[in-house]
Structure formats: structure tokens, C-alpha cells
Amino acid sequence: MKKIYIILVTIVTLGMTSSCSDYLSIDKYVNDMLTLDTVFLRKNYTEEWLWNTYSYLNNAGAEIANKGTNCFSFASDEAIFGDWWPRCRIYQNCEYTANDGYEDRWGHLYQGIRRASIFIDRVEGCPELGNSEIEDMKAQARFLRAYFYWLLIKQYGPVPIMPEEGQDVSLSYDALAVARNTYDECVDFICREMTQAARVLPVTRNASRWGQATRGAALAAKAKVLLYAASPLYNGNTDLKSLTDDQGRELIAQTTSEEKWAKAAAAAKDVIDLGMYELLTVKADETTVLPPPNIPSSTIPYPNGSGGIDPFKSYQQCFNGEITASKNPEFIFTRQSYTGSDLNDIAKHAAPRQMNGWNTIAATLKQEKAYLMCDGNPITSPSAEYPYRPKEFSLSNSDYPYIGANVSLRYAYREPRLYASLAYNGCVWENGSTTETQKIGLQYFYYKNDPSGKRLSEPDFYLRTGIGVKKYYHPDDSWNTGGQLKYKVEPTIRYADVLLWYAEALNELVSGQTYQIPSYNDQTMIEVKRETGSIESGRGMRYGFSRVRFRAGLPDLPDAVYADYESFKKELKRERQVEFFLESSRYFDLRRWKDADIEEGAPVMGLNVDKNNSDEQRPLFYEERLAEMPKIFLPKMYLWPIPKGELKKNKKLTQNPGWEK
């Protein structure tokens, strides 16, 4: 049987010019086979092929990026993009269709899959590579292929798993059509590939190779895939019973399996047991705002408490470029943009107009309220020592930690992650690298007619909720004269993710059963069951959850919360909302939990940005009101529509429920 891999090869650039329509287009590629053979005779061309395959993780393959590349952070309930660009409004109001191509990653990711498959099939034929090089590079390609499939099923649900051996070019187009696999079949394939890759990949890379797949990246990706498979959207979801293949086979499991949660917990424990990762922490110094002394864990050294670290800087510097990715012990897998602009583009769109920012990315009021008080109490039930006083204002720059003068006390005594993530009304933007010294360290307000508020002269450039965003901003970042920007990489998978996956999965093991799950190398069995555990024991829900809390300067949860399934699940969901703000996690978390209809179905709330800074109107700015962003949620929005053009070309493809065929 003659095989064909659908790819267009250019020897010099190894560039990709085919579109998603080319997967079943055969004839024009037959003549490229001799060229393909030539590529894999040379080491440099072979390496370039693999590096180019990595490039499919960028642009349309990115998970955290700017508005033109990835809008999932702005299509959920955590933040909105408010300038002239209509795409985020379209997502919030379900104005997109299977025809318009918005967030269409289908063709892009299948191109990456094809490149990886070709590499796996041909790399062993390169005479200029040693065996160890071949095995490592082949494992990287296997990781990439599995990760591309993961990105597909995360967005679209079950997809076709393409034949690894290629296809017979003599067959008709109809015969080459491939039906969707079940979701569980997709998960099984991805996990097998990740496991196989993990057994070969090194545990670490030097700085010059940072961003290439490692054992931890493969195991963490596997854990994430298994967690999603265990979640309600795909685990016994009768709401998706109508999602079938072309023969009527149900693609989503209709019965719930607790064992899926056990497998997810064990996969997360595989990553933990590597002993390679830790949450990023910055040592406390004379500038550190220490956690409240009434928190018992505040003086116990981290990781058993919050002692000895600066919680604010520990969280802030994880994202703002202060620490390079290769030196960040929390980063398991990252993406590098070729331009380095994606996260800085987010920062620029969040920055005030006087800094030459666009002043358009706004956090929702729901997101602001999710941040706890500094002693761990919610704003709805604060303590007497650390009250929540939204109707009062600070009088000087030294009244309260973090906030300056004339700032609403709704922002006083809040947990450090709020100050590292949100740009509240009256926030200081450091603007440290500009040569315009008069613009360094200024306080910015979002009142109507203020330079960064709602103004008739620039009707698109204001914060629709009155709550700004500071995540991904470095104090030295500046877009003014002489300004420079810190280079930042996408925090694709962080160790905080793994710890919370572990805790979440254990909480779901409510039957009382103990599971024995093989580790990735089949040499040991991992015991998982629902247990509180401890940091000292290296296992249990507390081991995963409390480390994230302590890094944030917050106390651990009481034993009673760990003991109660619903109470812990509520805390876990809030923790993920705060910890992974603006990391494209919330959009998919709400879907896998089947919470999106409630959380995203609610209107977007903000502050009253039509009030100015006069004595009379200043307090009225903090009135809660509907933001100027339409918002609905329809059941079909749990899955993204498969592009209509793909349905026309592949007759065996079926559309996701509710979307036009």
C-alpha cells in the first residue's frame, strides 16, 4: 500500500502552506515524496522539521494569548475585552457560528499532527543522528502529536484519530473520510502517547533547550487530560447523549465512573513524585507585607506555612518576566512566542492611556469578589480585625498595605493575589523603565472624564467594569519614551495546576474505595483514596491544596472543610478562579464542571463608570451595575462548533449538538 502524509514541504524553510481543507487532498502531494525522503537524510533538516512542529503550539495553537489569537479568557466570566475589536463581544453573546472561522484551530492542529506523524515515521532513517538523539526527538514528536489532539478535544470534544500509518492514495475521497472517535478513545490514545513519551524524555532540559518536551510535561499533560475526562462534562453526561458519530454511536460515556477520578489523581501524583517541581516563592525582605499574625501558619516556614516568603512577589513574579522560564521551578510546560508579544500585548491592552496602553481589559466584579480577605475570610463575612468597608476611603498612602490615598477600602486587607492581578481604581502603575520620569509611579483612577476613565474623546478605550488588570505586567514595563518590556512566556502548565488537580480528583472519590493505579513506568502502584492527608505525608487533599494557599499568604482550610465533599469542592472552585485568573483556565473549568450555564449565563457586573471624581459622585462609582457587554449562555456553547467547511469535506464528521450542520 502506498502511503501519503498530507504536507507541503519546502526544503529551505520547511514551511507549511496547506490549509485544513488539504487533509483529504491527495494528488498535489504525491510529487513531494522524493523531497520528503531527502529531508530526513540530513540532521539539520530533520531538526528543523521538529522545531517547526513545535511552532504549531504558537499562534492558533496558543492557550493564553492576545485578543486576535485566543479569546477564551475574555469569553468567560472573569474578564472582558472592551475596545473596538468585536470578537470578545461575539463570544460573550454567542454570535459566532460554524461558518465564521472564529477560534478555528481544527485545521491548524491537524497540520501539526501530520507533521509529528511524519517525523515519528521517518526520523529513524536519518543516518546523521545517533540512537539517543532519535529516541529523544521521536518522543518529543509523540508528545506534540498527543498535545495537538488534546487541544482539539478540549475545544471540540471527541475528534477523529487519524491513521498513524498514513492512507492509501488510490482510495476515493469518501473512502478517506474518518469518523469521530469517542471521547474516551481520544483520551486513551493521548494518554498512551504521553506515557510512551514520558518513559523516554529527560526530566529536565538546559536553558538553551527550554520549552522542549520533558518527562514532567508529558506526565502533567496526561494528568490534565484524565482530569477533564473524569469531569462531569464527559463522565456520564446524559445531556450529550445526542452527540454521536455518523453511525449513531454515542461519543460521550453515559454512565459515571469514579475510577476516572482515581486515574486522574494517580497521574497528578506521578508528576508530584518526580520531585522536580515546586511553587515559585520569593524570600521575604524588609518590603514584604507579612500575612496577619493571627494566622497560625503565617510564621511557619514554607511549604508548611507562609513564613519566610513574600506572598505578593511570589505570585506576581511567576508571570511578569522577572524570573526566566528556565529558572522558574513552577513551570512544567511553557510556550515561547516568536515575537514575545502575546502576554505583553495583554499587558498593553490593560495599561492606562497615559502609559500608551489601550486601557480596555477589565476584570469582572465577580472576579474581584472572589479574592478573600488577607486572613482567609470571604468579603461576605470578614473578621473584626480585617474588615471589608466598601463605602469608606483611605486618607493617605500609608494607611493600609498595598493601597494608596483616596482608594476605596473595598481593596484594603485583601489577599496578595488581588494586588498582583487587578488594577483597582487608584492603583499605582510603576512604569519603571521610561525616560519620562514624570510618568513613573503614578496613581491612576477610572472615574468618568479622568484620562483613564470613560471619555467622549476616546469612547472605546475605558474599562467597562471599572476594574483593571495587572497580571502579566512587570513594574519596569513601559510603553512611554525609552520604555522597555520584560520578555514573558505562556505559563501553559504550572505546578499549582498539578497540586490542585490532585486535590480535586481525590475529593471526588466519595465511595470510600481505595484504588491501586499503575505509575507511568509500570514499576510501582499508586494508592489513591479520598483522604485529607498532610504536607508531611506527601499525600492527600491537604498536601495539594494547602501549598497553593500558603504561597498566597492564606491559612489552610479547617479539617471540617476537607471532610465535607461539597464544602471542599466549593473552596476548590474558588481557588482555581483566583489562582488561574486570565490563564484561559476558567472558560474550560466552567465547562468541564458543567457550571457554565449558571456562571456564564449571569450578566456581567461591574462598577458605575459613569460617575466622576467629584465629592458627590465618587462614592457612587462603586455602585454595582450591569457592564456594557451583552452576555448569554446557550447549552450548545459547552462545545465549540466544528467548522462547516470540514463537515463538507469529511462526510463522516458529525456536528456538535445545537450547531448548524
Strand content: 5-15%
Looking at how many chains there are and whether they match, the oligomeric state comes to single chain
Shape: globular
Distance between the termini: 34 Å
Q: Tally of extended strands?
A: 14
Low-confidence sequence ranges: 1-31
CATH class of one domain: Mainly Alpha
User: What's the Cα radius of gyration?
Assistant: 25 Å
Strand order of the largest sheet: 1-3
The pLDDT mean sits at: 92
Helix content: 25-40%
Classify the secondary structure makeup into a structural class. Answer: mainly alpha
Name of the CATH architecture of one domain? Alpha Horseshoe
What CATH calls the topology of one domain is Serine Threonine Protein Phosphatase 5, Tetratricopeptide repeat
Counting DSSP H or I runs of 4 or more residues, the number of helices is 21
- Major sheet attributes: 2 strands, antiparallel
Pfam family, one: SusD_RagB
InterPro entries: SusD-like_N, SusD_RagB_dom, TPR-like_helical_dom_sf
Family: Belongs to the SusD family.
Protein name: RagB/SusD domain-containing protein
Task: Break the fold down into its secondary structure elements and pairings.
Layout: E1 3-4, H1 27-30, H2 33-39, H3 43-54, E2 79-81, H4 87-92, H5 106-122, H6 131-156, E3 167-168, H7 173-176, H8 183-198, H9 215-230, H10 258-273, H11 311-316, E4 331-335, H12 342-350, E5 361-363, H13 365-370, H14 416-421, E6 422-423, E7 427-429, E8 442-444, E9 468-469, E10 490-494, H15 495-507, E11 515-518, E12 525-528, H16 541-551, H17 559-563, H18 565-579, H19 586-592, H20 596-599, E13 605-607, E14 624-626, H21 644-649
Antiparallel strand pairs: 1-3, 2-5, 4-10, 6-9, 7-8, 11-12, 13-14
Helix pairs in contact: 3-5, 3-6, 5-6, 6-8, 6-9, 8-9, 9-10, 10-15, 15-16, 15-18
